[in-house]
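Dear colleague,

Following up on Tuesday's group meeting, I ran the structure prediction for the two-component complex that the binding team flagged. I've pasted the input sequences exactly as they went in, so you can double-check that nothing got truncated or mislabelled along the way. The structure tokens for the whole assembly follow below. Feel free to forward this to whoever is handling the docking comparison.

Inputs:
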Amino acid sequence: MKFGIVTFPGSNCDYDAFHAVTEILGEQAVYLWHKDHDLQNADVIVLPGGFSYGDYLRAGAIARFSPIMQEVAAHAKAGAPVLGVCNGFQILCEAQLLPGALMRNAALQFVSAAVRIRVENADTLFTNLYQPGELLRIPVAHGDGRYFAPPAALDALEAEGRVIFRYADAGGRTSADANPNGSERNIAGIISEHGNVLGMMPHPERACSLLLGSDDGVRLLESILSRVAA
Amino acid sequence: MSRFRLAVRIVPRKGLLDPQGKAVSDALHTLGFESVESVHVGRYIVIEATANDALSAGESAKEMCRKLLANPVTEDFEVESAVPA
């Protein structure tokens, strides 16, 4: 399987994503330059973390108009997998491929920490190798990660099983203390209506080796393989 | 076609949590501005562009806000002025 990792000016997790796909997963990966219009026949598109366009205006606001995003949107609309991590999640929201917005962290501080997230829906393209309710240890590193959507939109996401990850404490409770950024209802990741576009603030590609503290992110990538290959 | 100077103001939507405004408000209190009740921090954007007239210049500024300058989920905008540059 071929992963296409988009590099915007200011992306900084593209190498980590490339490493996770090629070295840990053992699959093929290519970098896709944001000014190109060619996805190079990639099966899975990854929008990596970073600070595309210096977060000017709003995080992700300018990247969504990069030429490659037209192809990424077409890929998503055709039902093919798109994974947006951190800045990638922000870009997906700005591009309206996912609902809501990522706002400045409630405490105004940049948060860089290993957090716990709870798997809310284990029957998706991205989470089928996890157990429902399983707690994962995955790092976050962001200043604008507070997920916001109007209450009716949040209710709809929950009713449709589209909240995929929530910040939780060691006991699995989605307490305010476990919420690193003030996200509505502790939401850490959501999926599109048709289940092929996932946006999440935590970085699974940085949790792919016990040497780095956690390998809980590996099964997210393997989940995609198991569904798409099957 | 003439040149216009467009000024748009973008503010966080009322009622949404605005930690930046809260931090500035707290700092103003610390400085002794006890009369401050609330603060909201937004953006002020000045654009120079050509248009047939002020009306169409203003309309295109609104379109810019809807498409890029403001986030429809969290922000409101207002075209403050569209005047000959």
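Chain B has a mean pLDDT of 95.

Cheers,
M.
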